[in-house]
């Protein structure tokens, strides 16, 4: 039998955590034959609710779930972690300036990065979901100098999945017919969902749609503002779809992208496509054997260039702000 994989989830008692844990335990994160140990990290106020979720996990009698540990100590929570899903974050509240938000999250992600550095397994893979996800990932990465930087990633897979769904609806295609879509930049309103290299049933998506006004005025804003539309409709932020995207992100990272396709991940830039080295920005990537590679050589037209640059500018400003705050 295989050795169980240690999966740590922070913010485990939150709504994304609630949608996420059952799918990890049932084998959707890593595969149907991979046993898991769950480590639930919460702040003290969240521990009791996390215990309740753990009781429900027990009651599912998942064959792959070996044990569950609940803690508010990051050193314990990340001990031996192979995969860490950093979901808990400090939400932006009314009247909060960006600097306040970044420093509140620095107080969470800096110590978590250090705890990962000191306690996680050598093969640790980190996905940051909690917002501002890209910059939180940068803070954690900077606090973990002994961990290869490329193990710190931020989630843009929900944006990627949203874009696929919107493009499928527009073209009448099945989602499974859509390949090579890209989210560039920040997981924020400036993100750029790019269909110029995407394929719909083997045909170029941009040529098939052939409607730049739809792209600029409908598609891009619909994808970028989908989170707000869901809050408006549901009265609560997206949780199941965010959890699903986190599952997809890690599953693809570990198990590989299909031939002839790629995915989108927020990763430390190596300078490709003019994105400054070191910032955590979303790129088109292929994955294989637990590692990822940026898809190279794509032709970036003017329409795309302006939008990638705008999102990257926001990321460099966030980086400068956290540098100023001494968080990186
Ligand atoms: P959620 O579980 O709904 O969200 C958690 C984080 O995910 C937020 O930062 C949220 O950002 C982010 N997120 C990213 N993408 C999405 C998306 N598409 N849709 C919705 N959210 C998204 O928050 P809850 O308040 O329900 O739960 C948070 C939990 O985290 C609480 O139990 C709290 O106790 C815990 N926590 C734990 C910490 C720790 O372990 N040290 C630290 C801080 C909190 P956004 O705010 O922009 O919606």
Your description of this structure?
It holds the Pfam family Ldh_1_N. The chain has a six-stranded parallel sheet with strand order 3-2-1-4-5-6. With 328 residues, it is of the alpha/beta class. Helix 1 packs across helix 10 (240-255) and helix 6 crosses helix 8. It contains eleven helices and 14 strands. Helices cover 43% and strands 19% of the residues. It binds NADPH dihydro-nicotinamide-adenine-dinucleotide phosphate. Residues 10-11, 13-17, 41-43, 45-46, 87-91, 108, 129-131, 133, 158, 227, 237-239, 242 line the site of NADPH dihydro-nicotinamide-adenine-dinucleotide phosphate.
What key phrases describe this protein's structure?
globular; alpha/beta; binds NADPH dihydro-nicotinamide-adenine-dinucleotide phosphate; six-stranded parallel sheet; 14 strands; 328 residues; three-stranded antiparallel sheet; 19% strand
Tell me the fraction of residues in β-strands, as a range: 15-25%
Work out the helix count. 11
From the N-terminal CA to the C-terminal CA, the straight-line distance is 41 Å
User: What's the overall geometry?
Assistant: globular
Rg, please? 19 Å
Q: Report strand order across the widest sheet.
A: 3-2-1-4-5-6
Low-pLDDT residue spans: none
Query: Strand tally, please?
Result: 14
What structural class do you assign from the helix and strand content? alpha/beta
Percent of residues in helices comes to: 40-55%
Bound molecules: NADPH dihydro-nicotinamide-adenine-dinucleotide phosphate
The SSE order reads: EHEHEHEHEHEHEEEEEHHHHEEEH
Mean pLDDT: 97
| Largest sheet geometry | 6 strands, parallel
Keywords: NAD, Oxidoreductase, Tricarboxylic acid cycle
Enzyme class: oxidoreductase
Binding site for NAD(+): 11-17, 105, 112, 129-131
Function: Catalyzes the reversible oxidation of malate to oxaloacetate.
């Amino acid at each position: 039998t295989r050795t169980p994989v240690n999966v740590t989830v922070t913010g485990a008692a939150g709504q994304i955590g609630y949608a996420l844990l059952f799918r990890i335990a049932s084998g959707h994160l890593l595969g149907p034959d991979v046993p898991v140990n769950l480590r639930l990290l919460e702040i003290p106020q969240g521990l009791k609710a996390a215990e309740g979720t753990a009781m429900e996990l027990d009651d599912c009698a998942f064959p792959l779930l070996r044990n569950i540990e609940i803690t508010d100590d990051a050193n314990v929570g990340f001990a031996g972690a192979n995969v860490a899903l950093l979901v808990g974050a400090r939400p932006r509240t009314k009247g909060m300036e960006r600097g306040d938000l970044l420093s509140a999250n620095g107080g969470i992600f800096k110590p978590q990065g250090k705890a990962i550095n000191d306690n996680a397994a050598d093969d640790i893979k980190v996905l940051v979901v909690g917002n501002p996800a890209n910059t939180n990932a940068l803070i954690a990465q900077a606090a973990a100098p002994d961990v290869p930087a490329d193990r710190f990633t931020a989630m843009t897979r929900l944006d990627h999945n949203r874009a696929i769904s919107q493009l499928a609806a527009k073209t009448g295609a099945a989602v499974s017919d859509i390949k090579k879509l890209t989210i560039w930049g920040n997981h924020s309103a400036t993100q750029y969902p790019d269909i110029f290299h995407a394929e719909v049933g083997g045909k170029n998506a941009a040529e098939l749609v052939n409607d730049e006004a739809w792209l600029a005025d409908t598609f891009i804003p619909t994808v970028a503002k989908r989170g707000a539309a869901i809050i408006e409709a549901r009265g609560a932020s997206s949780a199941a779809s965010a959890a699903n995207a986190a599952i997809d992100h890690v599953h693809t990272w570990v198990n590989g992208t299909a031939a002839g396709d790629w995915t989108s991940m927020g990763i430390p830039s190596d300078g490709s496509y003019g994105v400054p080295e070191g910032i955590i920005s979303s790129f088109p990537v292929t994955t294989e054997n637990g590692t990822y590679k940026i898809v190279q050589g794509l032709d970036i037209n003017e329409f795309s260039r302006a939008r990638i640059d705008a999102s990257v500018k926001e990321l460099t400003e966030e980086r400068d702000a956290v540098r100023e705050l001494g968080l990186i």
